[in-house]
Design brief:
This protein is of the alpha+beta class. The chain is built from 16 helices and 15 strands.
Protein backbone atom coordinates (compact mmCIF):
# COMPACT_ATOMS: atom_id res chain seq x y z
CA UNK A 1 0.00 0.00 0.00
CA UNK A 2 1.54 3.27 -1.23
CA UNK A 3 5.07 1.84 -1.07
CA UNK A 4 5.17 1.39 2.70
CA UNK A 5 6.82 -1.69 4.15
CA UNK A 6 4.31 -4.31 5.29
CA UNK A 7 5.22 -7.60 6.96
CA UNK A 8 5.10 -10.79 4.91
CA UNK A 9 1.99 -12.96 5.24
CA UNK A 10 4.05 -16.02 6.22
CA UNK A 11 5.68 -14.21 9.14
CA UNK A 12 2.30 -12.76 10.17
CA UNK A 13 0.96 -16.32 10.38
CA UNK A 14 4.03 -17.60 12.22
CA UNK A 15 3.91 -14.83 14.82
CA UNK A 16 0.13 -15.10 15.20
CA UNK A 17 0.43 -18.82 16.01
CA UNK A 18 3.25 -18.26 18.50
CA UNK A 19 1.38 -15.56 20.42
CA UNK A 20 -1.90 -17.49 20.34
CA UNK A 21 -0.15 -20.54 21.81
CA UNK A 22 1.33 -18.34 24.54
CA UNK A 23 -2.13 -17.07 25.48
CA UNK A 24 -3.75 -20.51 25.64
CA UNK A 25 -0.85 -21.99 27.57
CA UNK A 26 -2.17 -19.92 30.47
CA UNK A 27 -5.86 -19.33 29.69
CA UNK A 28 -8.84 -21.38 28.49
CA UNK A 29 -11.57 -20.40 26.05
CA UNK A 30 -14.28 -18.44 27.86
CA UNK A 31 -16.21 -15.18 27.91
CA UNK A 32 -14.66 -12.71 30.34
CA UNK A 33 -16.11 -9.50 31.77
CA UNK A 34 -13.54 -8.91 34.52
CA UNK A 35 -11.50 -5.95 33.25
CA UNK A 36 -8.44 -6.91 35.28
CA UNK A 37 -8.35 -10.38 33.76
CA UNK A 38 -8.83 -8.99 30.25
CA UNK A 39 -5.96 -6.56 30.83
CA UNK A 40 -3.77 -9.41 32.10
CA UNK A 41 -4.37 -11.32 28.86
CA UNK A 42 -3.54 -8.19 26.86
CA UNK A 43 -0.26 -7.99 28.78
CA UNK A 44 0.59 -11.58 27.89
CA UNK A 45 0.10 -10.72 24.20
CA UNK A 46 2.09 -7.50 24.58
CA UNK A 47 4.99 -9.20 26.36
CA UNK A 48 5.28 -12.02 23.80
CA UNK A 49 5.46 -9.52 20.94
CA UNK A 50 8.07 -7.60 22.92
CA UNK A 51 10.09 -10.82 23.29
CA UNK A 52 9.94 -11.34 19.52
CA UNK A 53 11.06 -7.73 18.99
CA UNK A 54 14.10 -8.25 21.23
CA UNK A 55 14.97 -11.54 19.51
CA UNK A 56 15.03 -9.93 16.05
CA UNK A 57 16.22 -6.38 16.55
CA UNK A 58 19.85 -7.39 17.03
CA UNK A 59 20.07 -8.63 13.44
CA UNK A 60 20.72 -5.16 12.05
CA UNK A 61 23.68 -2.84 11.84
CA UNK A 62 22.67 0.33 13.64
CA UNK A 63 23.02 3.01 10.95
CA UNK A 64 21.38 0.85 8.28
CA UNK A 65 18.45 -0.03 10.54
CA UNK A 66 17.87 3.51 11.81
CA UNK A 67 17.87 4.88 8.29
CA UNK A 68 15.43 2.22 7.08
CA UNK A 69 12.84 2.66 9.85
CA UNK A 70 12.99 6.47 9.76
CA UNK A 71 12.57 6.45 5.97
CA UNK A 72 9.56 4.22 6.52
CA UNK A 73 8.22 6.82 8.96
CA UNK A 74 8.41 9.38 6.15
CA UNK A 75 6.37 7.06 3.90
CA UNK A 76 3.86 6.22 6.62
CA UNK A 77 3.41 9.95 7.30
CA UNK A 78 2.29 10.47 3.71
CA UNK A 79 -0.34 7.73 4.00
CA UNK A 80 -1.44 9.17 7.35
CA UNK A 81 -1.92 12.54 5.65
CA UNK A 82 -4.09 10.88 2.98
CA UNK A 83 -6.12 9.23 5.75
CA UNK A 84 -6.57 12.52 7.64
CA UNK A 85 -7.77 14.16 4.43
CA UNK A 86 -10.17 11.24 3.74
CA UNK A 87 -8.30 10.54 0.50
CA UNK A 88 -7.86 6.77 0.93
CA UNK A 89 -10.15 4.25 -0.73
CA UNK A 90 -12.48 2.41 1.63
CA UNK A 91 -10.36 -0.75 1.36
CA UNK A 92 -7.09 1.12 1.98
CA UNK A 93 -8.65 2.94 4.91
CA UNK A 94 -9.73 -0.35 6.49
CA UNK A 95 -6.23 -1.76 5.98
CA UNK A 96 -4.70 1.39 7.43
CA UNK A 97 -6.90 1.33 10.52
CA UNK A 98 -6.45 -2.40 11.13
CA UNK A 99 -2.78 -2.18 12.10
CA UNK A 100 -0.72 -0.02 9.75
CA UNK A 101 -1.88 3.14 11.56
CA UNK A 102 -0.08 1.87 14.67
CA UNK A 103 3.24 1.79 12.80
CA UNK A 104 3.87 5.53 13.10
CA UNK A 105 3.55 5.36 16.87
CA UNK A 106 5.44 2.06 16.83
CA UNK A 107 8.35 3.44 14.79
CA UNK A 108 8.74 6.27 17.30
CA UNK A 109 8.89 3.77 20.12
CA UNK A 110 11.24 1.55 18.14
CA UNK A 111 13.74 4.42 17.66
CA UNK A 112 13.37 5.28 21.37
CA UNK A 113 14.13 1.64 22.16
CA UNK A 114 17.20 1.66 19.92
CA UNK A 115 18.34 4.90 21.49
CA UNK A 116 17.80 3.46 24.96
CA UNK A 117 19.44 0.09 24.21
CA UNK A 118 21.59 0.66 21.13
CA UNK A 119 24.22 -1.77 22.40
CA UNK A 120 21.90 -4.63 21.34
CA UNK A 121 22.58 -3.78 17.71
CA UNK A 122 25.48 -5.63 16.16
CA UNK A 123 26.52 -6.66 12.70
CA UNK A 124 23.98 -8.09 10.30
CA UNK A 125 23.56 -11.79 10.98
CA UNK A 126 21.67 -12.56 7.77
CA UNK A 127 22.85 -12.74 4.19
CA UNK A 128 19.96 -13.55 1.83
CA UNK A 129 17.49 -10.73 1.22
CA UNK A 130 14.64 -13.01 2.30
CA UNK A 131 16.08 -13.21 5.83
CA UNK A 132 16.14 -9.43 6.08
CA UNK A 133 12.47 -9.30 5.17
CA UNK A 134 11.72 -11.94 7.80
CA UNK A 135 13.57 -10.07 10.54
CA UNK A 136 12.05 -6.73 9.55
CA UNK A 137 8.58 -8.28 9.35
CA UNK A 138 8.85 -9.58 12.90
CA UNK A 139 10.01 -6.18 14.14
CA UNK A 140 7.15 -4.33 12.45
CA UNK A 141 4.51 -6.84 13.55
CA UNK A 142 5.81 -6.57 17.11
CA UNK A 143 5.77 -2.78 17.33
CA UNK A 144 2.30 -2.59 15.75
CA UNK A 145 0.86 -5.22 18.10
CA UNK A 146 2.56 -3.69 21.14
CA UNK A 147 1.05 -0.30 20.33
CA UNK A 148 -2.34 -1.87 19.65
CA UNK A 149 -2.25 -3.70 22.99
CA UNK A 150 -1.18 -0.74 25.09
CA UNK A 151 -3.89 1.40 23.47
CA UNK A 152 -6.42 -1.35 24.21
CA UNK A 153 -5.28 -1.69 27.81
CA UNK A 154 -5.55 2.04 28.45
CA UNK A 155 -8.87 2.17 26.62
CA UNK A 156 -10.31 -0.70 28.65
CA UNK A 157 -8.99 0.79 31.90
CA UNK A 158 -9.83 4.43 31.38
CA UNK A 159 -12.47 5.09 28.72
CA UNK A 160 -14.65 2.01 28.13
CA UNK A 161 -17.66 1.77 30.42
CA UNK A 162 -17.76 -2.02 30.16
CA UNK A 163 -15.70 -4.68 28.39
CA UNK A 164 -16.47 -8.25 27.35
CA UNK A 165 -13.75 -10.50 25.94
CA UNK A 166 -14.72 -13.60 23.96
CA UNK A 167 -11.58 -15.73 24.20
CA UNK A 168 -11.99 -18.67 21.81
CA UNK A 169 -9.11 -20.93 20.80
CA UNK A 170 -11.19 -22.60 18.04
CA UNK A 171 -11.49 -19.49 15.83
CA UNK A 172 -8.99 -17.25 14.05
CA UNK A 173 -10.14 -14.12 15.89
CA UNK A 174 -9.45 -15.72 19.23
CA UNK A 175 -9.29 -12.37 21.11
CA UNK A 176 -12.61 -10.62 20.41
CA UNK A 177 -13.89 -7.57 22.32
CA UNK A 178 -17.18 -6.45 20.66
CA UNK A 179 -16.91 -3.03 22.37
CA UNK A 180 -13.83 -2.27 20.24
CA UNK A 181 -16.17 -1.77 17.27
CA UNK A 182 -18.80 0.37 19.00
CA UNK A 183 -19.08 3.82 17.38
CA UNK A 184 -18.53 5.62 20.70
CA UNK A 185 -15.21 3.81 21.04
CA UNK A 186 -14.11 4.43 17.44
CA UNK A 187 -14.68 8.16 17.24
CA UNK A 188 -13.50 9.75 14.00
CA UNK A 189 -12.31 13.32 14.62
CA UNK A 190 -10.89 13.96 11.17
CA UNK A 191 -13.60 16.43 10.12
CA UNK A 192 -13.37 18.50 13.30
CA UNK A 193 -9.58 18.54 13.21
CA UNK A 194 -9.46 19.67 9.59
CA UNK A 195 -12.12 22.33 10.13
CA UNK A 196 -10.51 23.88 13.22
CA UNK A 197 -7.81 25.45 11.05
CA UNK A 198 -10.45 26.71 8.62
CA UNK A 199 -12.56 28.37 11.32
CA UNK A 200 -9.81 29.91 13.42
CA UNK A 201 -8.52 33.35 12.38
CA UNK A 202 -5.59 33.22 9.99
CA UNK A 203 -3.67 35.84 11.95
CA UNK A 204 -3.22 36.17 15.69
CA UNK A 205 -3.76 32.41 16.28
CA UNK A 206 -2.38 32.47 19.76
CA UNK A 207 -2.15 28.68 20.10
CA UNK A 208 0.71 28.63 17.58
CA UNK A 209 1.64 32.30 17.10
CA UNK A 210 5.39 32.21 17.58
CA UNK A 211 5.69 36.00 17.88
CA UNK A 212 3.14 36.19 20.71
CA UNK A 213 4.74 33.21 22.46
CA UNK A 214 8.20 34.72 22.15
CA UNK A 215 7.09 38.17 23.31
CA UNK A 216 5.59 36.62 26.44
CA UNK A 217 8.56 34.33 27.13
CA UNK A 218 11.36 36.60 25.91
CA UNK A 219 12.90 37.79 29.18
CA UNK A 220 12.85 34.38 30.87
CA UNK A 221 14.34 32.59 27.83
CA UNK A 222 17.05 35.21 27.38
CA UNK A 223 17.97 34.89 31.04
CA UNK A 224 18.12 31.09 30.93
CA UNK A 225 19.33 30.15 27.43
CA UNK A 226 20.64 33.47 26.11
CA UNK A 227 18.33 33.26 23.08
CA UNK A 228 14.71 34.23 22.54
CA UNK A 229 12.05 31.54 22.31
CA UNK A 230 11.34 32.51 18.68
CA UNK A 231 15.04 32.50 17.85
CA UNK A 232 15.49 28.98 19.19
CA UNK A 233 12.36 27.61 17.48
CA UNK A 234 13.33 29.22 14.18
CA UNK A 235 16.85 27.79 14.43
CA UNK A 236 15.47 24.27 14.97
CA UNK A 237 12.88 24.68 12.21
CA UNK A 238 15.48 25.93 9.74
CA UNK A 239 17.97 23.20 10.64
CA UNK A 240 15.31 20.50 10.12
CA UNK A 241 13.80 21.86 6.90
CA UNK A 242 17.12 22.75 5.25
CA UNK A 243 18.57 19.27 5.72
CA UNK A 244 18.91 17.69 2.30
CA UNK A 245 18.08 14.09 3.18
CA UNK A 246 14.78 12.90 4.66
CA UNK A 247 16.75 11.05 7.34
CA UNK A 248 19.59 13.04 8.90
CA UNK A 249 22.65 11.93 10.89
CA UNK A 250 24.60 14.95 12.10
CA UNK A 251 27.42 15.29 14.67
CA UNK A 252 25.85 16.73 17.84
CA UNK A 253 28.83 19.00 18.48
CA UNK A 254 28.37 20.60 15.06
CA UNK A 255 24.71 21.47 15.78
CA UNK A 256 25.58 22.89 19.20
CA UNK A 257 28.40 24.97 17.69
CA UNK A 258 26.05 26.35 15.00
CA UNK A 259 23.55 27.49 17.64
CA UNK A 260 26.28 28.93 19.86
CA UNK A 261 27.81 30.84 16.98
CA UNK A 262 24.50 32.15 15.62
CA UNK A 263 23.35 33.69 18.91
CA UNK A 264 26.69 34.28 20.62
CA UNK A 265 25.72 32.18 23.62
CA UNK A 266 27.77 29.89 25.83
CA UNK A 267 28.44 26.27 24.90
CA UNK A 268 26.53 25.22 28.02
CA UNK A 269 23.45 27.23 26.97
CA UNK A 270 23.58 25.87 23.42
CA UNK A 271 23.89 22.29 24.69
CA UNK A 272 20.94 22.78 27.07
CA UNK A 273 18.82 24.19 24.24
CA UNK A 274 19.57 21.25 21.92
CA UNK A 275 19.15 18.72 24.75
CA UNK A 276 15.61 20.06 25.24
CA UNK A 277 14.70 18.70 21.81
CA UNK A 278 16.75 15.49 22.10
CA UNK A 279 16.25 11.96 23.42
CA UNK A 280 19.26 10.01 24.64
CA UNK A 281 20.08 6.70 26.34
CA UNK A 282 20.50 8.66 29.58
CA UNK A 283 17.14 10.40 29.63
CA UNK A 284 15.29 7.36 28.23
CA UNK A 285 16.35 5.08 31.11
CA UNK A 286 12.83 4.91 32.56
CA UNK A 287 10.92 5.05 29.26
CA UNK A 288 8.01 2.62 28.95
CA UNK A 289 5.58 2.43 26.04
CA UNK A 290 2.77 2.30 28.63
CA UNK A 291 3.59 5.75 29.98
CA UNK A 292 2.67 8.47 27.45
CA UNK A 293 2.88 11.21 30.09
CA UNK A 294 6.63 10.74 30.51
CA UNK A 295 8.79 13.81 29.89
CA UNK A 296 11.26 11.93 27.72
CA UNK A 297 9.62 10.42 24.66
CA UNK A 298 9.31 11.14 20.94
CA UNK A 299 6.44 13.58 21.36
CA UNK A 300 7.77 17.13 21.53
CA UNK A 301 11.37 15.97 21.11
CA UNK A 302 12.46 15.23 17.55
CA UNK A 303 16.19 14.39 17.76
CA UNK A 304 17.71 11.09 18.91
CA UNK A 305 21.24 10.93 20.29
CA UNK A 306 23.33 7.90 19.26
CA UNK A 307 26.94 6.96 19.56
CA UNK A 308 28.14 5.76 16.17
CA UNK A 309 31.79 4.89 15.64
CA UNK A 310 32.66 6.51 18.97
CA UNK A 311 31.02 9.89 18.22
CA UNK A 312 27.77 11.41 19.45
CA UNK A 313 25.39 12.13 16.58
CA UNK A 314 21.83 13.43 16.28
CA UNK A 315 19.56 11.25 14.17
CA UNK A 316 16.12 12.31 12.96
CA UNK A 317 13.44 12.01 10.35
CA UNK A 318 12.58 15.41 8.88
CA UNK A 319 8.83 14.70 9.10
CA UNK A 320 8.95 13.30 12.64
CA UNK A 321 11.12 16.19 13.87
CA UNK A 322 8.87 18.78 12.19
CA UNK A 323 5.80 17.19 13.79
CA UNK A 324 7.50 17.21 17.20
CA UNK A 325 8.43 20.88 16.84
CA UNK A 326 4.85 21.81 15.95
CA UNK A 327 3.57 19.90 18.99
CA UNK A 328 6.13 21.72 21.14
CA UNK A 329 4.91 25.09 19.86
CA UNK A 330 1.22 24.23 20.37
CA UNK A 331 1.83 22.83 23.86
CA UNK A 332 3.45 26.03 25.12
CA UNK A 333 -0.03 27.51 25.59
CA UNK A 334 -0.78 24.66 27.98
CA UNK A 335 2.35 25.38 30.07
CA UNK A 336 4.26 22.45 28.58
CA UNK A 337 7.86 22.87 27.49
CA UNK A 338 10.93 20.61 27.67
CA UNK A 339 12.36 20.34 31.17
CA UNK A 340 15.76 21.65 30.03
CA UNK A 341 14.16 24.89 28.86
CA UNK A 342 12.31 25.57 32.11
CA UNK A 343 13.15 27.68 35.14
CA UNK A 344 10.82 29.14 37.75
CA UNK A 345 10.79 32.38 35.73
CA UNK A 346 9.96 30.52 32.51
CA UNK A 347 7.08 28.72 34.27
CA UNK A 348 5.70 32.04 35.52
CA UNK A 349 5.68 33.41 31.99
CA UNK A 350 4.14 30.19 30.66
CA UNK A 351 1.21 30.80 33.03
CA UNK A 352 0.81 34.27 31.53
CA UNK A 353 0.83 32.75 28.05
CA UNK A 354 -1.74 30.13 29.07
CA UNK A 355 -4.09 32.85 30.35
CA UNK A 356 -3.66 34.79 27.10
CA UNK A 357 -4.53 31.64 25.13
CA UNK A 358 -7.72 31.17 27.16
CA UNK A 359 -8.77 34.78 26.48
CA UNK A 360 -7.92 34.35 22.81
CA UNK A 361 -10.25 31.36 22.51
CA UNK A 362 -12.99 33.38 24.20
CA UNK A 363 -12.39 36.15 21.60
CA UNK A 364 -12.78 33.63 18.77
CA UNK A 365 -15.98 32.20 20.27
CA UNK A 366 -17.46 35.64 20.90
CA UNK A 367 -16.84 36.64 17.26
CA UNK A 368 -18.74 33.54 16.08
CA UNK A 369 -21.70 34.28 18.38
CA UNK A 370 -21.90 37.92 17.32
CA UNK A 371 -21.66 36.85 13.67
CA UNK A 372 -24.83 34.75 14.14
CA UNK A 373 -26.82 37.63 15.69
CA UNK A 374 -26.54 36.61 19.31
CA UNK A 375 -26.73 39.29 21.92
CA UNK A 376 -23.61 38.56 23.94
CA UNK A 377 -22.47 39.32 27.47
CA UNK A 378 -18.95 38.18 28.21
CA UNK A 379 -17.34 37.69 31.62
CA UNK A 380 -20.62 38.14 33.48
CA UNK A 381 -19.79 38.67 37.15
CA UNK A 382 -21.94 41.59 38.33
CA UNK A 383 -25.17 43.46 37.56
CA UNK A 384 -27.19 46.44 38.81
CA UNK A 385 -30.30 45.94 40.91
CA UNK A 386 -32.22 48.66 42.77
CA UNK A 387 -29.42 51.09 41.88
CA UNK A 388 -26.86 48.86 43.56
CA UNK A 389 -24.12 46.73 42.04
CA UNK A 390 -24.67 43.07 42.87
CA UNK A 391 -22.05 40.39 42.37
CA UNK A 392 -22.56 36.79 41.38
CA UNK A 393 -21.72 34.74 44.52
CA UNK A 394 -18.10 33.66 44.86
CA UNK A 395 -19.08 29.99 45.02
CA UNK A 396 -20.65 30.38 41.55
CA UNK A 397 -18.02 32.54 39.91
CA UNK A 398 -17.77 34.44 36.66
CA UNK A 399 -19.85 33.20 33.71
CA UNK A 400 -17.90 33.18 30.44
CA UNK A 401 -20.81 33.99 28.13
CA UNK A 402 -24.51 34.67 28.03
CA UNK A 403 -25.84 34.48 24.49
CA UNK A 404 -29.41 35.64 23.78
CA UNK A 405 -31.55 35.25 20.65
CA UNK A 406 -34.29 37.93 20.86
CA UNK A 407 -36.57 36.40 18.18
CA UNK A 408 -36.85 33.00 19.86
CA UNK A 409 -36.20 34.29 23.42
CA UNK A 410 -33.57 31.58 23.89
CA UNK A 411 -30.69 32.02 26.31
CA UNK A 412 -27.33 30.21 26.08
CA UNK A 413 -25.14 29.80 29.14
CA UNK A 414 -21.69 29.09 27.70
CA UNK A 415 -18.37 28.07 29.20
CA UNK A 416 -15.26 28.15 26.98
CA UNK A 417 -12.41 25.70 27.56
CA UNK A 418 -9.22 25.87 25.53
CA UNK A 419 -8.21 22.20 25.75
CA UNK A 420 -5.39 20.62 23.78
CA UNK A 421 -5.93 17.76 21.37
CA UNK A 422 -5.16 14.34 22.91
CA UNK A 423 -4.83 11.03 21.08
CA UNK A 424 -4.14 8.50 23.84
CA UNK A 425 -6.61 6.82 26.22
CA UNK A 426 -4.49 7.57 29.28
CA UNK A 427 -4.59 11.27 28.39
CA UNK A 428 -8.35 10.97 27.80
CA UNK A 429 -8.51 9.79 31.40
CA UNK A 430 -6.94 13.09 32.48
CA UNK A 431 -9.61 14.98 30.53
CA UNK A 432 -12.35 12.90 32.13
CA UNK A 433 -10.91 13.63 35.56
CA UNK A 434 -10.65 17.38 34.97
CA UNK A 435 -14.09 17.60 33.40
CA UNK A 436 -16.10 15.07 35.42
CA UNK A 437 -14.63 13.04 38.27
CA UNK A 438 -12.32 15.45 40.11
CA UNK A 439 -13.63 17.03 43.32
CA UNK A 440 -13.59 20.50 41.74
CA UNK A 441 -14.29 19.36 38.18
CA UNK A 442 -15.16 21.70 35.34
CA UNK A 443 -18.61 20.08 35.29
CA UNK A 444 -19.40 20.76 38.95
CA UNK A 445 -18.30 24.38 38.58
CA UNK A 446 -20.31 24.92 35.39
CA UNK A 447 -23.46 23.36 36.88
CA UNK A 448 -23.37 25.98 39.62
CA UNK A 449 -23.21 28.70 36.99
CA UNK A 450 -26.19 27.63 34.90
CA UNK A 451 -28.24 26.73 38.01
CA UNK A 452 -27.66 30.27 39.24
CA UNK A 453 -28.79 31.68 35.88
CA UNK A 454 -32.02 29.65 35.91
CA UNK A 455 -32.70 30.60 39.54
CA UNK A 456 -32.07 34.30 38.88
CA UNK A 457 -33.62 34.83 35.47
CA UNK A 458 -35.18 38.18 36.32
CA UNK A 459 -31.77 39.58 37.25
CA UNK A 460 -30.25 38.03 34.11
CA UNK A 461 -32.93 39.63 31.91
CA UNK A 462 -32.22 42.99 33.57
CA UNK A 463 -28.53 42.55 32.84
CA UNK A 464 -29.25 41.79 29.19
CA UNK A 465 -31.29 44.98 28.86
CA UNK A 466 -28.67 47.01 30.73
CA UNK A 467 -26.20 45.87 28.09
CA UNK A 468 -28.44 46.97 25.24
CA UNK A 469 -29.84 43.51 24.47
CA UNK A 470 -33.62 43.71 24.27
CA UNK A 471 -35.07 40.91 26.37
CA UNK A 472 -38.45 40.57 28.05
CA UNK A 473 -38.46 36.87 28.85
CA UNK A 474 -36.61 33.59 28.34
CA UNK A 475 -38.32 30.59 26.73
CA UNK A 476 -35.45 28.13 26.97
CA UNK A 477 -31.99 27.96 28.53
CA UNK A 478 -29.25 26.05 26.69
CA UNK A 479 -26.33 24.80 28.77
CA UNK A 480 -23.16 24.20 26.79
CA UNK A 481 -19.44 23.97 27.38
CA UNK A 482 -17.47 24.63 24.20
CA UNK A 483 -14.01 23.06 23.92
CA UNK A 484 -11.46 23.97 21.25
CA UNK A 485 -10.59 20.41 20.16
CA UNK A 486 -12.73 17.25 20.13
CA UNK A 487 -12.50 14.88 23.09
CA UNK A 488 -14.23 11.69 24.31
CA UNK A 489 -15.39 13.77 27.27
CA UNK A 490 -18.10 15.14 24.94
CA UNK A 491 -19.89 11.77 25.17
CA UNK A 492 -19.50 11.42 28.92
CA UNK A 493 -20.69 14.66 30.57
CA UNK A 494 -24.24 14.78 31.90
CA UNK A 495 -26.59 17.60 32.82
CA UNK A 496 -25.28 19.88 30.06
CA UNK A 497 -23.68 19.56 26.64
CA UNK A 498 -19.96 19.54 25.98
CA UNK A 499 -19.31 20.26 22.30
CA UNK A 500 -16.14 20.89 20.35
CA UNK A 501 -15.74 24.27 18.67
CA UNK A 502 -16.26 23.06 15.09
CA UNK A 503 -19.46 21.21 15.92
CA UNK A 504 -20.81 24.13 17.95
CA UNK A 505 -20.15 26.66 15.19
CA UNK A 506 -21.89 24.36 12.71
CA UNK A 507 -24.92 24.20 15.04
CA UNK A 508 -25.29 27.94 15.52
CA UNK A 509 -24.80 28.65 11.81
CA UNK A 510 -27.55 26.18 10.90
CA UNK A 511 -29.67 27.14 13.95
CA UNK A 512 -29.93 23.46 14.85
CA UNK A 513 -29.81 23.33 18.64
CA UNK A 514 -31.63 20.05 19.30
CA UNK A 515 -28.43 18.28 20.40
CA UNK A 516 -27.66 20.92 23.04
CA UNK A 517 -28.92 20.21 26.56
CA UNK A 518 -31.66 22.69 27.43
CA UNK A 519 -34.35 23.58 29.93
CA UNK A 520 -37.73 24.90 28.76
CA UNK A 521 -39.09 27.72 30.89
CA UNK A 522 -42.21 28.86 29.00
CA UNK A 523 -45.12 26.71 27.86
CA UNK A 524 -46.43 26.90 24.32
CA UNK A 525 -49.36 29.01 25.59
CA UNK A 526 -47.01 31.52 27.12
Amino acid sequence: MYGIFRPSDDIEEEQYNRVKKKVFDSYSSETITDKNKIVDICKVIYEEHENILKENIGAFEIEYFLTFVLEEYEKYAKVNSLYNNSALSKRDEENWLSYASHSRRGIKYLVEYLCQNNSVLGNKCFTPELNEIEYMSRVFISIEEMCSMYMRIDGYNFTFDDVKLILDESVYLYFNVPQDLKPENRIDYRYERSQVDTLLPKSGRLIDDLDVHSCTLESSFKEHLGVTYAGLIQFLRSFISNSRASVVIEPKSKVIHKLQEKFNISAQQAKLAIDGFTLSAENLKERKLFSPKQEYRAYHRGFFEFCINGSLVLVFSKTMASEALQILISNACYKILPKEWKTKFVEEQLSVLSNKAGKWFEDVLEAELLGENFGVIRSFKSYRKNNKVKKIPDNVGEIDFLGYLPDSKELFVIEAKNVRFNTEPRLYRDDISKFISAKKSYSSKFKKKYDWVVDNLDDVICKLNQNGITASEVSKVYKVMVILYPSPVEQKVTGFSCINFVKFVKMIKSQQYAQIESECLLTADS
